[in-house]
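Readers of this paper often ask what the protein records in our data store actually look like. Such a record has a labelled line for the sequence and another for the backbone structure tokens. The tokens are whole numbers drawn from a learned vocabulary of local backbone shapes. We quote a single record here, exactly as it is kept in our systems:
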Amino acid sequence: MNLPSNLLPAYSLSQRNTLGFEVEAEFAIHITEAKQIAETLVYAKDHNMPYQVLGGGSNVVLPSALPGLTLLMDIAGIEIVSEDANGVSLKVGAGVSWHSLVIWTLEHSYPGLENLALIPGTVGAAPIQNIGAYGVEINDYINSVEAFDSQAMQWITLDRAHCQFSYRHSLFKANPLRYIISAVNLYLPKQWQPRISYVDLQHFFAGKENDSITPLAIFEAVCEIRTQKLPDPKQIGNVGSFFQNPIVENSMLAKLKQRHPAIVAYPEDTNHSKLAAGWLIDHCGFKGLRTGNVGVHDKQALVLIHHGGGNANELLQLAERIQKTISEQFEIDLQVEPIIFNA
């Protein structure tokens, strides 16, 4: 097999996953331009090589070895496509750090993304998971997504409706590897209103004058709250929230409250409520648990952590143990939030 000069054999991904697992890609390639995606997929298919795409590695669980070809998404660039009195349209490369984008928008007086501050990972990964925090989801601001369709082997642009966004889900997550995102097109309206309905933000700004609740103030508040609740991946391996907050019918919530009066839940819509998965896990005694090289964070039970020297199998066994216990105690199926890569 004649390997392209930019193909990297036996490439370590230990710095490319925030869990800090020792992972080796059989082959890897840095994607810095959109055109490389099509070229690389043609090569992979011609040589019957499996492939996967990796951004910042902040929402994935990787096995110790990844066969075939790993595309490392490093497409940079933030472009102002258009701007008028109503808002600004941005085209952002899939490899741009999400938090760096949030900072850039505030520095250029384009508010809207401040509630999503300090979320690790890249812009290209944001639509896959439909990232959200503190009452805001990225789909609120997505105009369209540019991607290469590996099934049709052609470039496409999907508008917001075609992305099929829902809670922590999208067309891209439902069809892994089919759509490889190269850029995300955002629209940030100039008409700005603070979004502080989330309980933590309400508490943070309680008693403060309305004119002090600026986009920068919300950004700083979110950073402070997240820093207090979530461990820094540079200090201890983690992917943030490991489980989704389950959404249940209000009739189910009423039954749960009879057995567990202190259960934490928030209204989702007229007929549904969102349960705090962290409360469920904590209630079952998992907070602060360590088993081998992995465990549950002692400040936020929603976060599974890697102490070092562990692997995906250890972490997933702990996750399954938690899921089984929650199912037995509450009759609720916890869904894993990060993407699990198979060896």
Summary: The two ends are 22 Å apart (CA to CA).
